[in-house]
Specification:
The protein has 235 residues and is α/β, with parallel strands linked by helices. It has one domain. The chain contains six helices and eight strands; from the N terminus they run H-H-H-E-E-E-H-E-E-E-H-E-E-H.
């Protein structure tokens, strides 16, 4: 089977300009994880509750009646007096939720990773606390890390290519250290930390490549199996 998370992630870069400040990038990737769980059919409880419309994704990523930092993807029990909303192109319905059973946070490090990594890890830490303050959800972090030899970031009409200097280091020069720090500090906080190394220059013709597609696919599919097993035992 193919995996929608990998396809959606690739679509952020392939044949198009990636805008790192776009707030919906993480949401788009996270939503596909719930579709992949459904397609996998490894959790009978998840499958039944989704098909019955009892459990849904909340695209605002908020628990009804509670103020909290929003995540990128939240799945839980639909408010009982409401009907689930079906969105074209998606099988998992949507609506307001009373709790979070699965919470997903997505981060993408494409350039200037060492400058960003502390902020990224703080965001991941804070989101894990928010998820776990509302019960015992399955917490998932998806982190994309660029390994390209060069990269161009775009802000408005301006472009900023890497040149290997201390200010504009190439992604390949920083990706290893960034991944090491994230794994050491973030992995203990999440049920699943899914690291996805990729290569994208963000320059025409906007090519994208998984350096090791087999490894990324295997690790993601294994995480889906474990999430499914956790859902069966936890809920």
């Amino acid at each position: 089977m193919s995996y929608k998370v990998l396809e959606r992630f690739q679509s952020l870069f392939s044949g198009t300009v990636y805008r790192h400040r776009a707030s919906t990038n993480g949401d788009k990737v996270a939503l596909e994880l719930f579709e992949d769980l459904l397609d996998l059919k490894k959790s009978a409880k998840y499958l039944l509750r989704v098909q019955n419309g009892d459990n849904v994704v909340n695209t605002k990523n908020l628990i009804t009646g509670r103020e909290s930092r929003r995540g990128d993807g939240s799945f839980g029990e639909l408010l009982p007096h409401l009907s689930p909303q079906v969105v074209k192109g998606y099988k998992v319905p949507r609506g307001p939720i009373a709790n979070i059973e699965i919470g997903v946070e997505t981060k993408i490090l494409a350039k200037a990773m060492i400058k960003q990594v502390d902020r990224v890890m703080s965001d991941l830490e804070n989101q894990a606390r928010v998820f776990r303050a509302n019960g015992n959800p399955i917490c998932v972090a998806i982190v994309g890390i660029n390994q390209a030899a060069q990269y161009v970031s775009h802000e408005g009409d301006r472009s900023f290519p890497t040149d290997g200097s201390a200010t504009y280091r190439h992604p390949i020069d920083e990706c290893g250290e960034a991944e090491k720090r994230i794994r050491q500090r973030i992995a203990p906080l999440y049920d699943e930390l899914i690291v996805m190394p990729f290569e994208a220059t963000n320059a025409a013709p906007y090519k994208f490549r998984w350096p090791n597609l087999s490894k990324v696919t295997n690790e993601y599919s294994a995480a889906l199996v474990r999430i499914s097993q956790a859902y069966e035992s936890r809920f």
